[in-house]
Amino acid sequence: MSLDHAGQSIPKRCGRWADILGAYRLLSNGAVDSDQIQRPHRQLTREACVGRGVVLAVADITDLDYTDHPKTTGLGKLGDGRQRGLQQHTVLAVEPEGDVLGILDQRWYTRPESPEGETRRERHSRWCEADVWSDAVRTIGASPGGCRLIHVGDRGADNFAMIRACVQHGVGFLIRAMHDRLVDGGPERLWEFMGRRPVLGSMEVEVSAHRTGLKRDRRTARTARVALRSGTVEIPAPAHDHRHAGASPCLVHVVYVREQSPPGGAEPVDWMLLSSEAAPTGEDARRLARWYSRRWSIEEFHRVEKEGCRLEASQLDNADDLKRLAAVTGVVAVRLLRLRDMASDAHAGRGDPAALRGLVAEQWIVIVAALARTEARTLTAQQFWRTVARQGGWIGRNSDPRPGWKCIWRGWYDISLMVRGATLAEQTKPSGKCV
Q1: What is the CATH number of the domain that holds 72?
Q2: Which residues contact 341 (CB under 8 A, 6 or more apart)?
Q3: What pairs with residue 63 in β-bridges?
Q4: Among 56, 109, 190, 211, which is most exposed with the fewest C-beta within 10 angstroms?
Q5: pLDDT tens-digit readout, 217-231
Q6: Do 170 and 229 fall within a single domain?
Q7: Same domain for 289 and 142?
Q8: Torsion of CA 35, 40, 46, 51, to 10 degrees
């Protein structure tokens, strides 16, 4: 699947009848699983991590909603149980500066349902959704050579099995706490303990926009000034889970990121970050907070998959077929994110025309260069991306934020039509020979 028709249906992406049949045969082939499809990409991602010092393994879960496709088989319940679809867990390799390197692990599953009368012991004896985090850690394994891999997760990753798996494989972790645990075997809980720690310093963090179907749950993007505290605690194994019976407590470094004066009506930033990395100074705490803020990369990845590549619009009628399609779509989404990263003012390769040619077909470069009124040989990734966005309606004034995905996809679609027209014109051009 090329980038040229990333948001189109399979027939539109493939074009020729033979290619369409080939794509459907691949996606419906039970002898091919999603892991096999993505394995070469994941290996290249690991190789890209080698020698980089620190790489963040940023992970999250998202719903793939196929409620509107009632004939699709093999789906599970989503949300309150009225929706149907798949759960997708993805781990992206992200540099501390924010550039996406690729996918380290991706898996799909349906949420297990608790049988009637199930006991707590029985529940902890079977696989549950929280185990997906530690499963991914074990699959990825040790850090690539010359690299310190640090797993970054939101509150869903806050479980003892995840922390223990990172310790066992010699990799780091940076997890936003969900549970207000008792710490150090005493009566004091985590938030109370960290709230009494001295402030080491402050910093600004970017709060991303968040919108749901309910107006009251909408959050606008803003910059928040937060205070930083740090400490170290011991987290004991959960007493109710026999799988961790006899396990030693895990020593965890904590950075507490708390907004002191949020604007009226806004929920304050409150990140309780559990980490393998010590943070004795204000600069150490700021570094871990910046690393955690890179978690938004995976939210962008989900948007590209769903809004750009339109993964949830697929008409495939079997869950395994959808997983194979999602495996391909994930690689396309990474390439688009890498292209966007190269357009950033902070990216070292933003002005290198050769770097652009490793991601985009030459014909796209020629057409976008014409729209940008520059030469194709000198077109950079930054010029390419901004020209695509302007084609989709982004004005691009000095005071404007970077373009959103809707502008980008409108521009991408328009230019894909230009590319197709240029291809047809080239194919039908007279040879110039006399007959």
Answers
A1: 3.90.350.10
A2: 98, 99, 100, 347
A3: 87
A4: 211
A5: 556 778 889 999 999
A6: yes
A7: yes
A8: 180
Q: Alpha helices of 109-148 — where are they, by DSSP H?
A: 120-125, 131-140
How far apart CA 410 and CA 392 sit, in angstroms, is 5
Report which DSSP code applies to 260.
S
pLDDT band at 215 (very low <50, low <70, confident <90, very high): very low
Are residues 251 and 368 located together in one domain of the fold?
no
Give the alpha-carbon dihedral of 415, 417, 422, 426, to 10 degrees: 150
Separation between Cα atoms, residue 290 and residue 288, nearest integer Å: 5
Q: How many structural domains comprise the chain?
A: 2
The pLDDT tens digits of the residues spanning 354-400 come to: 878 877 888 999 999 999 999 999 998 888 888 998 998 888 887 77
Same domain as 347, residue 290 = no
User: What 3-state DSSP class applies to 118?
Assistant: coil
Global pTM?
0.84
Q: What are phi and psi of 317, to 5 degrees?
A: -105, 15
Query: Are residues 251 and 363 located together in one domain of the fold?
Result: no
Q: How far apart are CA 51 and CA 144, in angstroms?
A: 8
What is the extent of the structural domain holding 37? 32-115+123-207+220-311
Helices (H) and strands (E) in the chain, counts: 14, 10
